[in-house]
UniProtKB/TrEMBL annotation, chain A:
The keyword Membrane applies. Residues 1-227 form the ABC transporter domain. Keywords: ATP-binding, Cell inner membrane, Cell membrane, Membrane, Nucleotide-binding, Translocase, Transport. This is Thiamine transport system ATP-binding protein. SMART domains: AAA. It comes from the Bacteria. Gene3D superfamilies: P-loop containing nucleotide triphosphate hydrolases (3.40.50.300). Pfam families: ABC_tran. SUPFAM superfamilies: P-loop containing nucleoside triphosphate hydrolases (SSF52540).
TrEMBL record, chain B:
It is a multi-pass membrane protein. The chain crosses the membrane at residues 43-62, 74-96, 108-133, 169-191, 217-239, 260-282, 302-330, 350-369, 381-405, 437-459, 479-500. This is Thiamine transport system permease protein ThiP. It comes from Marinomonas aquiplantarum. Residues 35-235, 306-500 form the ABC transmembrane type-1 domain.
Length: 235, 512
């Protein structure tokens, strides 16, 4: 279980996140500018926060990003364009690219899992958007970190592909018992992957429910306003 | 226009040449030694500068420490310190009775290759560091964020991230430094120590000033242009192009995992800086506190020289800036206009071409050309101004081009859709480009202020600029007095540099 009680101040934005996140997928919803990505950056160790951040009772807050049990998929810049697909995945195991035989097998397995084995020697420029993000997922697989953070990594993909990628994430989360946090601005994505949803407003967690409440007749009051907004903004 | 003048000056030189005699030059062993030495010292100087610059740039990029910004400023200044002043500083530190000899008893054979290398590294290592840091700035911060999460240490970061960007910047930096060293004049003239270690550029000067052998001078000049062109073409063929990968992130810094090895390397890199760059600087400012300083300040000749220098530098900088601006605007106009597109890079290359043509050659050609029109020595003032302006052009372009290009790329469609043109566009752009323009002007001013080459050729009784005065003093072994003049010169440079880059350029917010 991931226990979060974090404060972060930036100019006139004062965030205070308090939430406990269980294993499985949790979708972070909220309008833009409300602080979804900020929470992810705090968890990942890319922003300095104050407070408590525990995972399975282990404190994480004092650790630098590379020592936290976390893999992050960002919206962009997940791959090094100067490295091949294989190198991009393998670098998740060893920053020096010196792999043991067993590690090499794991990289091959991860490429297999993400259907990229044929592209191992290609450079990211030669990949489509969906393939590029699959490389990043392959790296998540070889890193074997129990927490996975996704900061709208599929928002640039077309709907069918996005759906496919979300299913992949869901499957990976279940297969490897990950604690996955997915930032999204589409309630439909939360419904697609299931699990739980968190609504964030003004740097605060205002609701934490099972994902299917979004679709049910009794949508909690906190969500109705957000859903109304997002409906009107998409129309 | 300036291309025409360059071509004219070359042609004028050629008219005085006698091709038949050239073959006899080619068979002289002295010439071959000259070429060999010119190439050898330029190669060594540029390699040494780059080898030191890579770890220094990496260290400066990754660490923030007390004095970092001071060091960066020092670097930008050391590029434009008048060469003669720096040479004086180097002599004071490494010379026969210099600090090094006094402290440790080691006596370097300063006059010859060692001295030339020391001086060239002093000038060009900071230049290389700045060029490399520009390459570092191209690395999207998403890569650093990724590196941070994956736990890269400095070596991995260098190997997988930095190197692929540096690799593309290094050939350009190498060519630039190689050219500068290859055609280096003042350094070789004063630290070369005789015909054994002389370069083509110095030989041109000797042929012109002492022998007035136009034929030989034009031959040597052509040879120099030829060699530089061949090398530049060769390297640019090999060099891959650097371009910014699009990144949505604002620039921010993520700490890379530290280690003892990385720390040690940084310390070593730093010591190199301490050895090469700092002591001459300290040595230059040292005489400020002696009594001689005040006496020198009182001398009339000093102030005359200051006046002459300013009279040359200001018009030269203005002309250079105007030339640079018209280049930028032209190149930009050509950008994205279909067929004309290739011309934008061509124009920039033409601007850089000037580095290949020795200033002395342009000056002489221009002089001969004007003489044909019946204008004689009274025009030498304008020749000096003009040549200085042209010589500063590559640096001016380097300062302004990226900024102007960026403006064009980002806002072209916005401007054209709003119908903002010409003067109104200038007004909108001014706050964004003013810092680059001011920087360019300051560079041009300083380069002309510190110029030693052209003035050495054309200087006469009535026209002794500050660097030339200094050179004369050193030549007369009045080192003490020379040191004081050097202080005046460098203070003048620093003052003007700060004045223009800060006050005209405004705050750095424009860079954002």
């Amino acid at each position: 279980m991931l226990k979060v009680d974090l404060k972060y101040d930036w100019e006139r934005f004062h965030a205070h996140y308090q939430v406990q996140i269980d294993q499985g997928i949790t979708t972070l919803l909220g309008a833009s500018g409300e602080g979804k990505s900020t929470l992810l950056h705090l968890l990942g160790g890319f922003l300095p926060g104050r407070g408590v951040l525990d995972f399975q009772r282990e404190p994480l807050l004092a650790l630098p990003a590379y020592k936290r049990p976390i893999s992050t998929l960002f919206q962009s810049d997940n791959l090094f364009p100067q490295l091949t697909v294989w190198q991009n995945v393998a670098i998740g195991v060893s920053p020096h690219l010196r792999l043991s035989a067993e590690q090499g097998e794991r990289v091959a397995w991860a490429l297999e899992q993400t259907q990229l084995a044929a592209k191992a020697n290609a450079y990211p420029q030669a990949l489509s958007g969906g393939q590029a993000q699959r490389v990043a997922i392959a790296r998540v697989l070889v890193r074997k970190k129990p927490i996975l953070l996704l900061d709208e990594p599929f928002s640039a993909l077309d709907p069918a592909l996005r759906e496919e990628m979300l299913f992949l994430v869901k499957q990976v989360t279940e297969d490897f018992s990950l604690t996955t946090l997915l930032v999204s601005h589409l309630p439909s994505e939360a419904l697609l992957v299931g699990g739980r949803v968190i609504l964030i407003e003004q740097g605060r967690v205002v609701a934490h429910e099972a994902a299917d409440v979004l679709d049910s007749a009794q949508t909690p009051i906190a969500f109705t306003q957000y859903l109304g907004e997002s409906k009107s903004s998409t129309s | 226009m300036f291309v025409c003048i360059g071509a004219f000056s070359l042609m004028a030189l050629l008219r005085y040449s006698d091709v038949a005699e050239w073959s006899s030059f080619l068979s002289q062993p002295y010439l071959w030694r000259l070429i060999r030495f010119s190439l050898w010292q330029a190669l060594l100087s540029s390699l040494l500068s780059l080898v030191i610059a890579v770890p220094v740039a990496s260290c400066l990029f990754h660490r923030s420490f007390w004095g970092r910004s001071f060091l960066l400023q020092l670097f930008s200044v050391s590029m434009v310190v008048p060469s003669i002043v720096a040479i004086l500083g180097i002599v004071v530190v490494y010379g026969r009775t210099g600090w090094l000899a006094q402290i440790s008893g080691i006596e370097l054979p300063l006059y010859g290759l060692t001295g030339i290398l020391l001086a060239h590294v002093f000038f060009n290592m900071p230049l290389a560091v700045r060029l490399l840091l520009q390459a570092y700035a191209l690395i999207p911060s998403g890569q650093w964020r990724q590196a941070y999460q994956l736990g890269f240490d400095r070596w991995s970061a260098f190997r997988f991230i930095e190197w692929s960007y540096l690799r593309k910047a290094l050939p350009g930096a190498f060519v630039l430094i190689f050219m500068l060293c290859f055609s280096s004049f003042a350094v070789v003239l004063s630290l070369g120590g005789g015909p054994k270690s002389s370069t083509l550029e110095v030989a041109i000067y000797q042929a012109l000033r002492f022998d007035f052998d136009l034929n030989k001078a034009s031959f040597l000049a052509l040879l120099q242009v030829l060699i530089c062109t061949v090398i530049a073409l060769f390297v640019y063929k090999l060099a891959p192009v650097n371009h910014q990968d699009s990144s949505l992130l604002a620039q921010s810094r993520f700490p890379i995992r530290d280690s003892y090895g990385a720390k040690a390397l940084d310390v070593i890199a730093f010591l190199c800086v301490l050895v090469f760059v700092l002591p001459p600087f300290i040595a230059i400012f040292d005489p400020m506190f002696s009594t001689q300083f005040l006496q020198t300040l009182g001398s009339l000749r000093l102030w005359q020289a200051v006046l002459v220098s300013l009279k040359i530098a200001f018009p030269a900088a203005f002309i250079s800036l105007l030339l640079g601006l018209s280049f930028c605007v032209l190149a930009r106009y050509c950008m994205g206009k279909g067929k004309l597109d290739i011309w934008s890079t061509k124009l920039e290359q033409v601007g850089n071409l000037i580095l290949m043509v020795p200033g002395l050659v342009i000056a002489t050609g221009l002089f001969l050309w004007l003489r044909d029109f019946g204008l004689s020595f009274s025009s030498s003032y304008w020749i000096v101004v003009w040549v200085n302006a042209v010589m500063a052009l590559p640096f001016v372009l380097r300062c302004m081009m990226p900024c102007f290009y960026q403006q064009e790329r980002r806002f072209r469609h916005l401007y054209s859709s709003l119908g903002v043109q010409a003067w109104s566009r200038c007004k909108i752009e001014w706050p964004l480009v003013r810092s680059a323009v001011a920087q360019a002007f300051a560079f041009a001013l300083l380069l002309s202020l510190g110029d030693m080459g052209v003035i050495a050729l054309f200087g006469s009784q009535g026209m002794v600029s500050l660097p030339l005065y200094l050179f004369q003093l050193i030549g007369a072994y009045r080192l003490e007095e020379g040191a004081c003049v050097a202080v005046v010169l460098i203070l003048l440079c620093l003052g003007l540099y700060v004045l223009f880059s800060r006050i005209v350029g405004g705050k750095w917010h424009a860079q954002g």
